[in-house]
């Protein structure tokens, strides 16, 4: 109901008056191995964000589809911007929203590589007392369930991501390619040598671009994960709506 | 067929090998008066861009939905980033695409406020010999037809834009609000005093946010405009495909 | 009488107390074909600006002689700075003036390529409520007269510019070269292909560097244009002087 | 033997000819609760780095004592610079070293808040093929040992850090304050609400500034941790010395 | 003869082919006490630069009239830009000139506050091997003569500057105000407390804005200083013309 | 007693409450010829700064060991960062200190190349009314004594610097190399041609990297210089402590 971009400015006035929190989906367009589409991360973020359409107390912003993916650049189709540019784009978008009176948001994130930039956005907006906008990575909210469902360390285009994509965009999973994804995958993210993390690019440690056990994916696991994460997101939105704005701002010097 | 974000990296390798040109839709999320949705500009850009899906020689990139709209900031729902941030986001996205071998693109633009940034992107990419990526404003390609169809100077949320939206997203036009849009509209863009242009913000000269004659809009006019502009876009793509890359780069010193 | 640079600081205190508005001439040093000097644009801007010396309510700032002319770089003698640098130079100059209490100015501009940067300067200064400083392009104020005088689309080193130079710096026109300028000129600015603007550099579409009908120039036409534009400038200054400062600042959110 | 700053330029020429790798200690000056000195992180980094003095194949650079510690700013004595400034300072320092022919380094890091900036430095230097300079966080190399020694999740001024400080700067531990540190400590870093990480500043979740079980610290545990981590660092240096430079640079497009 | 801005592009081609060196006058518009005009520094620079018009081996660029004068901001009429903006403006102007084949220049400077920025410009252009462009402060070339002529430490709007202005712009000196300038002047620049330099702004140590003995000025001293400095400038130009370009670039690592 | 980095946050609260002024040592790691260590400048700065430990009214910050030394880059072991990065690092460090209530500092500087950046830091902090932090170059405070002690113009790794190093770090002087330093030294800094300063890099005018008469150095002269400069520093600290904060901020417009 309340996709901001589908409202007129007059309707937006009403919606923003009523809403306590905005939802901004951000992701990436980057390689996810041979079985998942490049848009995996922004598609998942958008799917979670759109579940907030049903809420009167939230508005859903348009999806930012390109993110911080330089480490996937050796694989075809990967698009990326620098961390600084991504951070500025997200921060300025939210600063413009705040001019209309909305001072809370959730950054619904589909891509781990965006995390540092999003934390930085959230810190800046909070320090300025412009907006309280914590990032929410969908996979962080359902780590325990994923551990139950799959035996994988994973990290990219793995059973967890593949399942969720299977659920939200069934038309875009290539089940016959999951085998190829897995046979060229590494078990875990990066490469650690005596305590130093050395996997700068995915190509340094994964041949197919995947990390984990993609063949363990299933649409049913995807449905479970999606629903569980969605519930967490809505619980977070409830919590945010309740929280007084003054309690959101930074604490003073001790 | 070839929305890049829906391809896997393996498929993207094939698609990018075959394709000669990319299409990047860019727009804005900003007030368009009481009758049109905030997403007008990125929705139109996306609609034009997606007509290139049918072509084997093109790939369509995901839509960038927020642009340079500071001058609409007094109207609810308007989102914006600075010109520098928008320019960097678009340029870096295209630079990452060029790493996969694609060196031609059309920037399908739905928002006049983006024009200067897009020209700057195109200049930089050309001067670096990274990519030849001219901006294409859909309305610039069908100016004569619009003059035939409507008697308006227009410029924003006018008969021309309203008609095209009516055609591409019939569900999002609010026909009953066109009257209100027009009664609060100005005739032309900005305000000129003795040769100086003084309309810094839309609110300086338009009460409803619209500029032009929205009530003159019709779905039929929208269909005509859309088809004519689409044909121009495809003619441009044909021309670009044919043009040797060497002919695209800057000329040397005289 | 009141060229700021010729005043002492003590006299400037008086002049700035009395003056309501500053006049800043900006232009470029760039190719203007074989018949006009490289300094055309800053010379014209300076000539217009200096007509404000006679006014007690204005101070005239020193001329900034280099501008945004990268698109002329293939022609000998063209100097340029980036848009960002030009914008910062103009903006900071005006911000320093504002510290002395002057909060209105006209940016008397002689070069179209500077326009975007000047609009951006004016927006920033207005949004900060530092200064109200609209750009004024001399040619925009006399478009109708030029249409009467010449049959040309024009755009650069054309009949209009040549005439004005002939009037303000008769010693620097090369009448015998107007023919060469015209024979190598294009009719209009740039090159449009199916709605995309493709003339990135002047050299892409003009052999001589001129655009228009330089041979149509005459000192008499120059005198008419100069006087008409000067009158518009002074009307603008009158208007600015009258306008209350509060009416100059941005309007609030609707 | 080879602290670079103690060499003359003539001696440095010899040392840099002989050395294959540089060691740059970086840390912070920030609150570490009531029992540890503000310089904890740069002191630990320096202590580890100086163990490389004994090696002919390494040079040790001077310590950078201030880092990315904005999240500790509410506690007295915390110094910090922005992530961008820290990153530039470290990167430019290493770029200047590379001019003398040294193209490998280890960034011996004592502060978790520096990690993102250091990864970014390492990526840039590698992508430019200027230097291969992986960050090494001392605590990452001895996680298993710490798990054996202490029952804590920890994260800041905890048993692990306190022990190492006790070992390297016995004069600067305040054992009588460990109780106070612990009584005001949180168990783990930050605060997670439905998958969103919400502890922006340490003050948001820890009263004393510590996170973990400081009272579990002991000089003996410190000695074990220090020696184990030092061995890992030297193994990393050995590995780096052996690794051909060509194997260090980024891989090409697939 | 060869003021670049007065040439056409065709003539500039010839002039730049023939010329070995460019001359760029830079100064400021800032308070010079009650007896000298605000434009003192750019007027002097321009006067010296224009003496190079007579040379076939030099081209004179247009004058940049605003500089790094923040420390004079409390006095009416002072204009200034930041050091970074000034540096960028000068450097980019010269980089654009270099595209036409001119790789030597003298930065004829009239304002001490510009010095650091100009040294930085010169270093960058030299390190890039774009241009060899040493700054030349007119007063530095005639220090001995000034010591002979006047008994002053001086530093700003002093006998030396006043004399030169008297010579180059006799119409703009206010001889009756020299007394007032001197009575409110300090003897030397700034204020030193136990080795620390504490005069941040001129207003901190000079009431009139002048530093030195303005009343010692005379048109005759001005003529002597001007001629002596002009001779030094031309000797420098001769030296530069003779010097092979390869001898101008930075030396390699020892 | 009060090295900030050795205090806990609790102790720092007390120390900062009691202290009126901070002392920040900054220097460089750069060639100082064959007789002095690369760390000369930061070692001297640190030695002077640490004499303030004894004072209850001061806190000593950790030493920043790398500075603006690009002009020494051709000599082995020289490290450097850009002026902008150095300035940001110092300024942000002090801004973070000011959050704890300390608004006065002395920038104890050991390297002439840092001076412009430090002046800029001091100006910015003062203009913001964040902190009054004048730079103090140790050699500037004892110029007369140095003139008495040595017959040299000097400027780098000269008798003055060598003597002070001999005093503060006797273990790091190489007395047998002073001869070599001097035989390859220039007499004075840089190279002046007709008033233009042309020595961009030390290598342009000094073979050994030294400038002056290193053989004139002695530990006794070093002791005299050190004590005299230390006394000046403490007199400056006394003066600063006494000075009311309001007297430190910039004066208003005249």
Automatic annotation (TrEMBL), chains A, B, C, D, E, F:
One of its GO terms (molecular function) is hydrolase activity, acting on carbon-nitrogen (but not peptide) bonds, in linear amides. The keyword Transport does not apply. This is Creatininase family protein. Pfam families: Creatininase. It comes from the Archaea. InterPro entries: Creatininase-like_sf, Creatininase/forma_Hydrolase. GO terms for biological process: riboflavin biosynthetic process. SUPFAM superfamilies: Creatininase. Its cofactor is Zn(2+).
